[in-house]
Amino acid sequence: MSDHLILMTRYPRAGQSKSRFIPALGADGASRLQRKLTEHVVGVAREWRDASPGRRVQISCDRASVDEYREWLGRELDFGAESGGSLGARMAVASVRAFARGADRVVLVGTDCPDLDVGQINRGFYGLEHADCVIGPTTGGSYYLVGLVTPTPALFAGIPWGTGAVLARTLHIARQENLRVGVLPQLSVMRGPGDLIHAAPLLEVRPADVPLARKAEG
Questions:
Q1: Sign of CA dihedral 205, 145, 89, 155
Q2: pLDDT for 92-101, tens place per residue?
Q3: 110: nearest Cα among 217, 181, 211, 10
Q4: Which residues pair with 177 in a beta bridge?
Q5: How far is CA 17 from CA 20, 22, 31, in A?
Q6: Alpha-carbon 16 to chain mean position
Q7: Fewer CB within a 10 Å sphere, N or C end of the chain?
Q8: How far is the CA of 97 from the CAs of 75, 101, 115, 141, 150, in angstroms?
Q9: From the CB of residue 1, how many other CB atoms can be counted at a distance below 10 Å?
Q10: For 177-215, what is each residue's pLDDT tens digit?
Q11: Please, which residues have CB within 8 angstroms of residue 124's CB and are 6 or more apart in sequence?
Q12: Which domains does the chain have, with CATH numbers?
């Protein structure tokens, strides 16, 4: 059994990442948030990969070259060259490529979920033993994880990314594709300054300091 975990992220350039957080954190602070969230998920992915043979991790590069990602996150990691297009298009391409390389099961995760851990990733893969698709829903109507046992590009097409309709639309497509769907526990993700409390440990600030950042939202 070959399991492939794909991380969808964005390079942390000031002014070009986490734009919703710029009013509260400034361009540099928002970029630092992107960096910290990504490094957290990469650490989780490494732990998952090293726990068992036959596991592979790939980071889908966006808005930077593979070399820039290697300098940032480490040269022993596997990086997928930027494919361009929408988030859905990049997810579709990354998953199809993983299956073409011999994956039996593919799980894709984002980097906006500070609570993501090895247990959640394992649940995603275990769920694929009894389902064609596994989804980890978020409190905001999206998802932090999606897993597949076969290439299904249609699952990522026509999705209103960045809205609260992502999950509903994805589940609708899954039904149209006659997929058996497994659902994981719901988690919170970083949608805006009001969610900074969830990332306080990653940012190395006290939770009590976070409301000061939230005030800048208004």
A1: negative
A2: 999 999 999 9
A3: 10
A4: none
A5: 9, 9, 6
A6: 18
A7: C
A8: 20, 6, 28, 27, 11
A9: 11
A10: 999 999 999 999 998 888 888 788 887 755 544 433 433
A11: 107, 109, 134, 136, 145, 147, 184
A12: 3-190 (3.90.550.10)
pTM score: 0.91
Alpha-carbon span 133 to 155, nearest angstrom: 10
Q: Which tokens in the block code for residue 178? A: 């006659």
Q: Give Cα separations from 125 to 108, 138, 180, 198 (angstroms).
A: 10, 18, 14, 25
Six-digit token pair at 177?
Answer: 């594709």
Distance, CA of 73 to CA of 100 (rounded, Å): 25
Angle (CA) 92 189 34, round 5°: 80
